[in-house]
Amino acid sequence: MNAEAAEAHVVIEASPHEDSVAARQAAAAFVLRNCPWADADAVLLVVSELAANVARHTAGWWRLHLSAGADALTVEMEDSSPLLPVPREPDLAGGGGFGWHMVLRLAGQVEVRPLPYGKRVQATWMRPAPAGAAEPVPAA
Question: Could you tell me the pTM of the whole model?
């Protein structure tokens, strides 16, 4: 089976006032079904934080896209705001500032791309190599 045939996808679309519960539930089911190797807690925290940021910092729609191939799990959150995420100094008195730092630490790779209609935040986790698998030797 080729990697393309093994891919799985789910898309959740919502207005800004809709709760992110559906996004978390969809992500939990998706990871369990398609990526049992992934750290489900880390993925759910990232999905929760991205959905919370959309609700807090945008006034329009959002779209969550989850995809899994043979070697990676990708979470993409698109929204209607052109403003890119900016890390802030965490406020220990309850003012926030922890979420973006958490996303950056939990995901293997994070990219932010401006789009004509807003932006896309993409978090990717690579499938770990099987235990005992030898590293490929570079060609000379």
Answer: 0.81
